[in-house]
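User: My instructor asked us to take a sequence, write out its structure as tokens, and then describe one feature of it. I'm not sure where to start. Here is the sequence I was given:
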Amino acid sequence: MTEGTIMSWEILDGAHTALRTAVAGVSGQDDWNRATPCERWTAAQVLQHAAGDQIGFAAAITGGPGPDEDPFAPSGTLAGDPAELAERAMRASAAAFGTVARDAEAVPTPIPPHLFPADLAVGACALDAAVHAWDIAMATGQDSPLTPELARALMPTARVIVDPVRAWGAYAEALPEIEGDDDVAALLRYLGRDPRWKA
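Assistant: Let's start with the prediction itself. The structure tokens for your sequence are:
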């Protein structure tokens, strides 16, 4: 990779598109107070968590500042424009991963063991954005922004990184697979989410 080159990571682009779509589809402030598939968190708290995680991934790579608040204890109070909060966080992670070579073997992340090959590091960042995009969309009555293609691409990363962090509460226990599940349902169940969840 030559100096100044910005690499495009398609999986992260796809996850960011999903999160951007979900945030744009929230119709008003009241919807940000809705319950989500993340037990005990509102849509606003899920957004704050997702944005904080994107900044956390960026900070791990760049050494820059982390999120303003603990992503695992979001306040639920959105002081500014939700879309700008999401965009600022996604720009940070995209720019940070833009400096990472595809063949890098030890990319810093906020997830133990904190160093991953590039494909797993970017996959972890994308998985976080994509699943929380789904949470926000489901909470606010939108269609799923998580496509089968994106879910299929994210599953190999999920199978590596998710089990070790379930104990933190980062992901719930996996739900049993059901015959006939598509790629989206299979990923959601592995992440402890019911694909049929409704607000």
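For the description part of your assignment, you could build on this observation: The longest strand covers residues 107-108. Try explaining in your own words what that tells you about the chain.
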